[in-house]
Design goal:
The protein is of the alpha+beta class. Helices cover 26% and strands 20% of the residues.
Length: 66
Amino acid sequence: MCKVSRAGVNIIMVTQSLQDIIPEINRAVMLKKGRLFKDGPKEKILNAVNISSFFGIFLEIAEKDG
């Protein structure tokens, strides 16, 4: 998928697994029970506060190798 993204093609990816999100993804949209929960730049949306609230559990996030 990285070659496609580098070629300037837009990618819309739907996943339930955060580890599937490739570095080329710039924007994240979180839907909960069919409604918009969060929308914005990946770096601002995918953080411990939002993800904890989304899943209803406390968690911490560690970034390794980008």
